[in-house]
Amino acid sequence: MTITEKILAAHSGSDRVTPGELITCEVDIALGNDITAPIAIKAFEEHGAKQVFDKKRVVLVPDHFAPNKDIASAQQAKVMRDFAKDREIENYFEVGKMGIEHALLPEENLSLPGDVIIGADSHTCTYGALGAFSTGIGSTDLAATMITGQIWLKVPETIKFMFKGKKKNKWISGKDLILYTIGKIGVSGALYKAMEFCGDVIDELSMDDRFALANMAVEAGAKNGIMKADNKTLAFIDSQEVKPVRDFKIYESDSDAKYQGVHEYDAEDIELQVAFPSLPENARPVGDAKDIVLDQIVIGSCTNGRYADLEIVATLLKGNKVARGVRMIIIPATQRIYKKAMNTGLLDVFIDAGAVVSTPTCGPCLGGHMGILAEGEKCLATTNRNFVGRMGHPKSEVYLASPAVATASAVTGKITDPAVI
Fold first, then answer.
1. 212-269, pLDDT tens digit by residue?
2. 421 belongs to a structural domain
3. What is the pTM for the complete model shown?
4. What is the C-alpha separation between 138 and 123, in angstroms, rounded?
5. What is the 3-state composition of the chain as percent helix, strand, coil, each rounded to the nearest 5?
6. Of 18, 77, 93, 407, which sits most exposed with the smallest number of CB within 10 A?
7. DSSP string of 347-390, one letter each residue
8. How does 54-68 read in b/e, with b if 16+ C-beta sit within 10 Å?
9. In what order do the strands lie in the sheet with 224-226?
10. 211, 235, 265 — which closes off a domain?
């Protein structure tokens, strides 16, 4: 069996499961945010439920419109806050403690290898970087899971993505690998499939790059993205301030596991990538993005707001200035990341260069706040989606790239390869 099949079998009480089979799984973590949780809470209460299945395993994070941008978002947050208080939810993270959910949970060691994690947010697939089965669901499914501690689903077929060789240069990141992959297979290329990532290049990636890679599996239509947990995974878990409060198990695919397909890529062929509007599949080498003048740069999101991302930004930004006429918005993904960036001098570099630094929030990624685009404006972002109107006006444009490309572009004012900075 594959990693995904083994995890689902273990959580459904079966010796084995097969693709296409409908199963009911025990859930380790059920996650909601300030957009999706209020709808789940309404369904929860309409069902007449009094208490969640486990006060430790329901996680609520107000991160999309927080700090609240208007009355409507304040009301949404209050619904979640009151529910968490009334039901004594242990893992409710208020503003000041919260971060972008998919960066926060690994920091808190709430997402662990071998877990089944469901979240009412499509980028819940991020935790596959830890060797967990994690997937997004709708709000009403979240309500049912908060009541029962279970989820039903169809076992996905698995597609293997093997990355061989050595990366072309030091700036190639997990973001480039996933944009390249989506460019090859398209936004429906892994529809309801498990994307399993492996190979020498994956083994060498930092955990932050692995999170970025798994995070965008859903942009290829995948049910989940996943990779084997290894010594780097264990070192990451051990390095967090909060230690795991439950046991976990590491799974890996059998040598004779059956795959729906196998894609092999030579890392030498992978350039720095830019996804052109208005789909992530419109990925091209950065050299194809000549003379595209930008109005805004956004560094952050659940894809690329981690500390290693900010280090790359600081390395390229130090001694440089943000180009005249360009707005550069940098959003550390969690309070711990923000504080570390402050204590190590990264924030000084950002501000001295003319960038603005925000409190942790999803903010502009979903067109929420902290960087909405006007008609005709162009933005290069390290976020995960560039659909029409995703970050503001439907006649604005969003390009996706890594922190390295985004920072070089902030300095020149147009999409730029960091090698020239």
1. 999 999 999 999 999 999 999 999 999 999 999 999 999 999 999 999 999 999 999 9
2. no
3. 0.97
4. 12
5. 35, 20, 45
6. 18
7. HHHHHHHT-EE--S--GGGGT-SSSPBPTT-EEEESSS---TTT
8. eeebbbbbbbbbbbb
9. 224-226, 193-198, 157-164, 261-266
10. 265
